[in-house]
Amino acid sequence: MTHPSSSPATGSWTTTTHQHRGRRRALRAGIAVALAAATATAAAACGTSLTGPGTPKAAGTPDPAAAAEAQAFLADWAGGRLDSAASRTTDPAKAQEVLRNFTAGLDLGKPELTPEPAGLQGDHSVRVAFTAKMPVTGLGTWTYRSELPVRKQEGGAWKVDWSMSLVHPRLSDSAKFRLDREDTSPPKVTDRNGAALTGDDLPSLRPVLAQLTKGGSAPRGAIRLVDRATGEVTGTETTFGAEDAKPSDKPPATTLDATWQAAADKALADKAGGKNASLVALRVDNGEILAMANSPATGFNRALSGTYAPGSTWKIVTSSALLIKNAVKPDDVVDCPKYLTVGKEFHNVETSEFPGATFRKDFTKSCNTAFISLRGKLGDSELGDVARDYFGVGQEWHVGIPSYDGSVPVPRDETEKAASMIGQGRIQANPLVMASVTATAASGRFHQPTLVPGGADTTSTKPLPPAVVDQLRSLMRATVTDGTAHVLADLPGEIGAKTGTAEVSEKDPNNGWLVARRGNVAVACVVEQGVTGGGSAGPILHSLLAAVPGDPS
User: Fold this and answer.
1) What is the Cα Rg of the chain in Å?
2) Rounded distance, CA 154 to CA 516, Å?
3) What pLDDT does residue 219 have?
4) Which has the closest alpha carbon to 310: 207, 422, 397?
5) What is the tens place of the pLDDT at every residue in 428-486?
6) Which residues contact 370 (CB under 8 A, 6 or more apart)?
7) How far apart are CA 330 and CA 326, in angstroms?
8) Would you say 499 and 534 are in contact if contact means Cβ atoms under 8 Å apart?
9) What's the pLDDT at 539?
10) Domain segments of the chain: what residues?
11) How far apart are CA 336 and CA 321, in angstroms?
12) Residue 241: phi, psi to the nearest 5?
C-alpha cells in the first residue's frame, strides 16, 4: 500500500520547479527591458539610429548598400560594361561618354580597379576610394588613386554622384590626358660606307642585326596632362622606360659591304638548290668581314657558328705544315693510289687515281691518299700547332658577334691522324674559319676576322714564311686552271681556290666546300649534302664573284 505522502511529495517538487523557472523567466525579461531602455538612452545620447530590431549601427558607419553600389560601378567599368557602369551614376549619358573617351589614344588595356573600405562624409554621402591600375600597351602600368562619391537619391536608392574627376582627379572639362611614345626602335646599322643595312633588303642579316643592336632599347613613353583647347602640356602624370633606354644617335657601323652582302644573299638564293648553305667573304689584308650569308636566311648563323669538317679545303693548312718543314716540295712525286688503308680504308672522290703524281697535282686534284701517305712527316700535334700559330684557328676571336673559331684536336690514333690530314676526323671549322685560312695563305699573315671595327684582338700568331706563301698561291691558282676548282676559271682575275668534299656519315651525302681568293677578297662556302665542292659550292661562289668583279673600297 502506497504511503499517502508519496504522491504529494512528487507533486510538490514539480510545482516548485515550475515556479523557479517562471521566476527566472520573469527576471530575464526584466533585465532585457532594462538593457533595451539603457541602450535606447545611450543611442539617443550618441546620435545612433537602430536599423533593425537588435542591429545597432555605430556613428560614421556607411550604409552597406552605398558601398555595394560603388563596388558594382568599379566592377562594370573594369569589365568594359560602360553602359551598365554609367547607369549607376547620377548622369548616365555624360558618364558613358567620358568613360568611353577616357581611353581614346591612351592604348589602355583592361583596368584593375581596387576599392578601399567606404567612409562617410559630412554631407551624408559615402566616399569609396580606389586604386586604378591601367595597363598601357607595350609600356607598363599607369597607377593612380581616386574616389567615388555615392549619394542616396529620392526613393532611397544609392547612386555614384557623377563628376569627371572621379575617373581621375585631374580629368576635367579643360584638361585631358595624352600618351606620348618615344621612338626606341633599334638603331639603323650601316655598312663600311655608311649605307643602311636592313633585314628586308638583306635577309641573311636579320639575326645579325638583332645581335648588333641587342634587339633595340626598352620602350619609353609618358602620360601627359594637356589643355583641351590648346593642346599644351601642363604636366606629366607618369613616365615609362629607363632614362638610359634612349637609343644612340649614331648608328652602329660594321665592316660589311652592302654590295657584297646583296650578291652573297642572291648567290645562295639562286644557286643553293634549297640546301642548307652558308658563305663568308672577307678582306685579305685586315680580316674585315664583307659579307656573311645563310640559306635559309633566318635562324642559325652557319656561316659564323657552324661546326663542319672542312674536308679537302683543310689541305691548305696541311700543305703549309709540310712546306714549312720542307717535308715536301710542289714538284716532288707523291703517288696517288685509289685506296690507302690506315686502320680503315681511305679513298679519293670517285675513287680516282694518279700514279706518279707530283705533290702539286695531288693538291690540284685533291688526292686524299697522297696527303694521308705523308702523315709520318708531321708530329701528332704538329698540324694543330700550325693551324693555331700561323692561322689563328682555335684561338679566341672577337668578331663582334658570337662565332665558332675552329678546333684541331691532337689525333687519338693513327687512323684519326690520317683523317686529319684531309680535314676529317675531329677537325671542325665553318666558312668564317676557312675564309680566314684562305686569306692567311694568300697574304702570309693572320688577321682576326672582324664585323665591328675597334673590337679586341687577343690572338697571337706568326707570319708564314714568304716562300711558303708563294707556293700556296701557286698551288691554289693551279687548282683553278688545271684542277677541281675549274668552275671559276672563266672569271677574270688571278683567282686561286681549293675544293673540298667532307664526309658526314655513311648514309648521308657529303658536304661540298669551296674556298677562293681574288685580289683582296677571300671567300668560303659550304653546302650541306652538296656531294662535291665544285658541283655545289662552285656555282654559288661563281655567282658571287661574277656579281662583284672588283675589290671593296
Assistant:
1) 44
2) 94
3) 78
4) 422
5) 999 999 999 999 999 999 999 999 998 899 999 999 999 999 999 999 999 999 999 99
6) 334, 335, 336, 354, 357, 359, 362
7) 10
8) yes
9) 98
10) 64-173, 189-245, 258-547
11) 19
12) 90, 150
Question: What pLDDT, in 10s, does the model give residues 289-337?
Answer: 999 999 999 879 999 999 999 999 999 999 999 999 999 999 999 999 9
Query: How is residue 183 written as a grid cell?
Result: 621612338
The full DSSP string for 285-333 is: TT-BEEEEEEESSSS--HHHH--B--GGGGHHHHHHHHHHTTS--TTSB
C-alpha separations of 132 from 114, 124, 237 in Å: 7, 25, 13
Residues counted in the chain: 553
User: What cell numbers appear for 398 in the block?
Assistant: 672577337
Percent of the chain with pLDDT over 90: 76
Instruction: Please tell me the predicted confidence (pLDDT) of residue 205.
Output: 94
CATH class of 64-173: alpha beta
Show the DSSP H helices in 347-459 as ranges: 359-364, 368-373, 382-391, 414-420, 431-443
Reduced to 3 states (helix: H, G, I; strand: E, B; else coil), residue 412 is coil
What's the predicted TM-score (pTM) here? Answer: 0.68
Angstrom CA distances, 186 to 140, 181, 199, 217, 252, stand at 19, 15, 12, 6, 10
pLDDT top residue among 378 and 245: 378
Q: Is the peptide bond before 549 cis (omega within 30 degrees of 0)?
A: no
Where b means 16+ CB within 10 Å and e means fewer, 393-405 reads bbbebbbbbebbb
Q: What's the grid cell of residue 545? A: 664573284
Domain 258-547 has CATH 3.40.50.720: no
| Residue 98, all three cell numbers | 567620358
Query: Which letter, b or e, does each residue of 15-43 get, where b requires 16 or more Cβ atoms within 10 Å of its Cβ?
Result: eeeeeeeeeeeeeeeeeeeeeeeeeeeee
- Angle between helix axes 315-324 and 466-482 (nearest 10 degrees) is 140
Non-local (6+) Cβ contacts of 201 within 8 A are 262
| Residue of 24 and 341 predicted with greater confidence | 341
